[in-house]
Design goal:
- The chain has helices at residues 68-77, 82-89, and strands at residues 3-4, 10-12, 18-20, 31-32, 46-48, 59-61.
- The chain contains two helices and six strands; from the N terminus they run ββββββαα.
- By secondary structure, it is α+β, with helices and mostly antiparallel strands.
- The protein starts with a strand and ends with a helix.
- It has a two-stranded parallel ribbon. A two-stranded antiparallel ribbon has the order 2-3. Strands 5-6 form a two-stranded antiparallel ribbon.
- 20% of the residues are buried.
- The chain is globular and about 40 Å long.
Amino acid sequence: FANHGCDPNVGITQSLDVIALRNIEAGEELLYDYSTTMQESEGTWTLTCECKSLLCRRVIGDFSTLDISTQTKYIALGVVQPFILDHIEQ
């Protein structure tokens, strides 16, 4: 199982592999940024976040709600789903 984290320790690749984004301690919860897997046509999907990270955004939205530097980072890491990348390229 994995949950959302605004400072994720894993990501999900385009081939649906879960990859570590940093060292993960034994027993540490796996966290990925839900925004890397969500892209609603109207951008209406949101989730109240309580991840307690210093980087917590408080409200999680789809990929388009991320700031450009975070989007760029996730794209470079290869953890943004293809349907989102297709949407960006349109």
